[in-house]
Every structure is written in C-alpha cells, then in structure tokens.
C-alpha cells in the first residue's frame, strides 16, 4: 500500500516526528514557529560542516529534542527558493525515502509552504511510496504504510490540489501495477478485464474485440503476433468524451498503445537474458489506459479515444514465422523478417483501426518498441518521433513539468528506403542493423493516413526503472501517464 496523506489544520500532539522544510537555508523564518532551543539546534545543524546536511535541494538531516517541545524528532529538508512543482514533488520523494530508511511510520510536516507547494510535496511522497507487494506472502512485507500528516492553514486548497494530483498518481499506479504483473497472470484476456475494472464508473465507453472479430475484420498483423499463444489477442477501445460543449464533427485525439503481455521474440527467439522483464512489453498500452483513467477521473474537458493492441508473442506449431507475408488491417502487406519486431505489427493494426473509425485530429502512440532507442537515449529518456515539429516539441518540453523526459529522434525517407520488400509492400525490419529505432518509426508512419499529425513515443528504456528515482522506486515506472495527461490537457 502506498503512503497515506492527510491534511490537517494543525499538527496533532500524538506525532513525534516533524519534517521542516528549510527554504533557501533560512531558519530565521521559523523563529515564531518553533522554540528558541530548537531554533538554535536547527541553526547549528545546517551550518555543521561535518554533518550530512549540505544545503542542496532535498538534503535531509535530523536531530532530537528532549525539551518541552511538541516533537521529539526534527527532520530538516533543504528546499530551493522558487522551486517548481516537479522540484517539490522530488523533495516529497526524498522525504519518503528518508522516513522509510529511518523506520519512521508517521510524520508531520511543518506549515511553512504555500498550499499548492505542499500538495506537490505530498504527491511526490505518494508517488515514491508505491510498492508492488501482491505476490509476497509475508504480511510484514505488505504493511509498510507511512502516514504523512501535513498541517496547512489553507487546508481546503491543499486538499483540493492534492486530490487532483493523487488521481493522476493513482493512474500511474495502475500502469505500474499492470506492468509489474507476471505474464502468467496478465495476458490479453485478463488484461482487458483489468482495463474494464480500473475504468469502471468513470463514464468511458469500452469495447473489447476478441480474436474471432479481429480475424474477421482482417487485422492480420496483430493476429499473426498472437497466433502462437494459447492466450489470444484483443483490441481494446476506450472512448472518453468530457467536452463541455459538444461541437458536431469535432474529431477526437487518438492514443494508441503496444500491449504485448509477453515478448519471447517468437521464432526469432530472444536469448535468455534479454527475455527477462519482457512482461513490461505492454508498458505503452499501460501508459495510454492510465492516461484515460486520469483524464476521466478529473473530468478533463476533452475528447479522446484510446486503442490498445494486446497480444502475447510465443512459439508454437501455428505461430507466425520469419518469411511469412501478412495482410494488415489497412490492406498493406508485410514481409516478416524478424518475429521479434512484433510491436510495430500490433501497432499497425491499432493505428489503422483508430483512424478508419474515428478520423482523429492527431495520433500519439506509445510502445516499448526497440532496444535501439535505449541504446541511443539510455534509460532516463524516451524517444519521440513525429511528422509534426510542434507536436514533437510539446513532448520534448513536457519533461520539465512532468518528469517524463523525451528526446527527438529522426523519422525520414532515408530510413523508409530500408523497409522496402521485394515480395510485399514492406518488411518489418530495416536492412541495416543500425538505426533500429528510426526504421521502426518509419514502419509506423506508413500506417498514418491523410498526413495526420502523429507522434510515436518509444518508451523501451523508461518503462522499467533499473534503479530508484526520486518519484519512482526501482521497478515499473508508469512512464508516460503524467506526460500524456499533461499533453492531452493542454492540446489545442
Ligand atoms: N519489446 C522489444 C523491445 C524492448 C527491448 C523493450 C528492451 C524493452 C526493453 C521489441 O519487441 C523487440 O524485440 N525489439 C527488437 C527489434 C529488433 C528485432 C529489430 C530489439 O530492439 O532488439
Ligand atoms: Mn520483440
Ligand atoms: Zn516487443
């Protein structure tokens, strides 16, 4: 269970520990709030050259007080003046780590920040406190809740701000949960059920197309990927219309996600080491569904449709092979060069479906698509590929606000030449071993109709955090939910 956050008018006497934000190293600002001896201790603590407090944003130090003070433990945390919401969220994350490391279960926060700042701090704390404990049988591992009680004289404002932030964080948690789920529990059919469950009561319309419908429809790329598995593919469509004024003929925003619940590579089998963690290969779809959850929970004034393609890439007598030629939903044919380049096949049919059915004004897809993107950008940034400079820039800039960082990579005709095929309309792999993130992107571009603005987000490197971050404990990151929520909310 993640942390419990409560806002109160004042701090209750039953709490021993208090967190004191020190803005720009100025303790004097606290002289009316704490007793003189405590203030003195604070001063010496933050100036102690041998101490662990370096005054840098997020640095923490603690001391105890046995005076008649209300609290026995004081934790000072350095906060830079003029910190933005994301900086305060990171402070919250650092406090969460500090409290856990010191086995402190309940703490108060001194009322020195503005309501929206304290809400951001609380949200960072909440995001960092996430744990996936479902499969632990030891009860002790399960109950690790920390309670943070935050005094704020503008309690109502802080509460309102935090409630909104928390609903987005809960959508991030949905994404982290499904990415963490092992592939024996999460497969296309069960995943579709989870999607329905998490969106229940939020006023969205959900349609699930099963393998029979997909076959009939002619979604030959998606069904090929799922053919070798006993767990058959699904296409899940989620519509959210939260427009205050419904303009007739207005087109929706489309979100498309790769939902490969497990990627063995198929007959182009992954070597053992690379197969590990391939349960995360549905991270793009998790980001899109999480985004829908957050938009609907906050009743954002917008019209969005999300389509996620769910399949399991396995080996069997009836699995698709290298050299197969597939007919996609668009009618275009694809020569299979590598069955491990399956994500683009799933996305191709999902992209066609959403454009044919909804004629969206803009399309954004997210996918754990290529190791090559990881090779180029590492694991702290996702790639953005777009046919529209403005769209590309909006994702690139988005990172400063949401912490989901993107960097632009090319999608152009030179790469497109590499996917020509002698037998079919295209092949699913570039001719060169290099530039694989861009050859995947040009493949997707072939399925974009009417020169529609489109962006492809390759989140292969960011969907799983290999180390702890301020807002993400090691593991499934929920990457993309915050970025896409922010992007959709501001899209004009
Ligand atoms: N799901 C993988 C990409 C991936 C790699 C995601 C590492 C997360 C972490 C994708 O389906 C894949 O296998 N890509 C291949 C493409 C290759 C066959 C052209 C890759 O990147 O090696
Ligand atoms: Mn693959
Ligand atoms: Zn994959």
Please sum up the structure shown:
Helix content is 37%, strand content 20%.
Which features would summarize this protein structure in a list?
492 residues, alpha/beta, eight-stranded mixed beta sheet, elongated, binds ligand BES, binds manganese (II) ion, binds zinc ion
Please give a structural write-up:
- This protein is of the alpha/beta class.
- It has helices spanning 36-47, 85-101, 115-128, 139-142, 155-180, 188-199, 211-217, 220-226, 272-275, 283-297, 343-358, 371-377, 389-402, 413-417, 436-445, 481-490; strands at 4-8, 17-23, 60-64, 73-79, 106-109, 147-151, 205-209, 234-241, 253-263, 303-313, 325-327, 333-335, 362-367, 382-386, 406-408, 426-427, 454-458, 464-465, 475-476.
- An eight-stranded mixed β-sheet has the order 7-8-10-9-13-17-14-15, sandwiched between helices.
- Strand 11 (325-327) and strand 12 form a beta hairpin.
- Helix 2 (85-101) crosses helix 3 (115-128) and helix 10 (283-297) crosses helix 16.
- The longest helix has 26 residues, at 155-180.
- The chain is elongated, with a radius of gyration of 25 Å.
- The protein starts with a strand and ends with a helix.
- The model has no long low-confidence stretch (mean pLDDT 95).
- Manganese (II) ion is lined by residues 263, 265, 340, 342.
């Amino acid at each position: 269970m993640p942390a419990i956050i409560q806002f109160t008018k004042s701090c209750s006497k039953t709490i021993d520990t208090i967190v004191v934000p020190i803005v720009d190293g100025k303790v004097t600002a606290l002289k009316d709030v704490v007793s003189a001896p405590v203030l003195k201790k604070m001063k010496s603590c933050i100036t102690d050259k041998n101490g662990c407090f370096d005054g840098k944003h997020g640095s923490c130090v603690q001391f105890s007080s046995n005076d008649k003070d209300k609290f026995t433990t004081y934790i000072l945390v350095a906060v830079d003046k003029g910190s933005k919401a994301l900086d305060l969220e990171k402070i919250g994350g650092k406090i969460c780590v500090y409290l856990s490391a010191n086995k402190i279960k309940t703490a108060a926060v001194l009322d020195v920040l503005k309501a929206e700042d304290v809400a951001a701090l609380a949200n960072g704390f909440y995001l960092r406190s996430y744990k996936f404990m479902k499969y632990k049988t030891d009860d002790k591992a399960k109950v690790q809740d920390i309670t943070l009680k935050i005094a704020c004289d503008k309690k109502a404002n802080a509460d309102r701000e935090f409630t909104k932030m928390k609903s987005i964080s809960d959508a991030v948690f949905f994404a982290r949960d499904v990415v963490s789920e092992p592939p024996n529990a999460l497969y296309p059919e069960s995943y579709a059920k989870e999607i329905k469950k998490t969106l229940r009561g939020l006023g969205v319309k959900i349609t699930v197309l099963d393998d029979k419908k997909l076959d009939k429809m002619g979604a030959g790329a998606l069904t090929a990927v799922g053919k070798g598995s006993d767990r058959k593919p699904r296409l899940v469509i989620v519509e959210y219309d939260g427009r205050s004024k419904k303009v007739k003929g207005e087109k929706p925003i489309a979100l498309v996600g790769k939902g490969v619940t497990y990627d063995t590579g198929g007959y182009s089998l992954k070597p053992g080491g690379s197969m590990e963690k391939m349960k995360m290969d549905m991270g793009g779809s998790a980001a899109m569904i999480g985004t829908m959850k957050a938009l609907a929970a906050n009743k954002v004034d917008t019209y969005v449709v999300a389509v996620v393609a769910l399949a399991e890439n396995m080996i069997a007598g009836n699995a698709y092979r290298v050299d197969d030629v597939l007919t996609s939903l668009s009618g275009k044919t694809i020569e299979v060069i590598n069955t491990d380049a399956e994500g683009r096949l799933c996305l191709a049919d999902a992209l066609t479906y959403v454009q044919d059915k909804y004629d969206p004004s803009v399309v954004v897809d997210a996918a754990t698509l290529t190791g090559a993107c990881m090779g180029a950008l590492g694991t702290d940034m996702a790639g953005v590929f777009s046919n529209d400079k403005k769209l590309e820039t909006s994702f690139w800039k988005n990172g400063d606000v949401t912490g989901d960082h993107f960097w632009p990579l090319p999608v152009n005709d030179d790469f497109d030449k590499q996917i020509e095929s002698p037998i079919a309309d295209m092949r699913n792999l570039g001719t060169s071993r290099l530039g694989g993130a861009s050859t995947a992107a040009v493949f997707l571009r072939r399925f974009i109709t009417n020169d529609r603005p489109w962006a492809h987000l390759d989140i292969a490197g960011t969907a799983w955090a290999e180390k702890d971050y301020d807002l993400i404990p090691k593991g499934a990151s929920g990457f993309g939910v915050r970025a896409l929520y922010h992007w959709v909310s501001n899209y004009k």
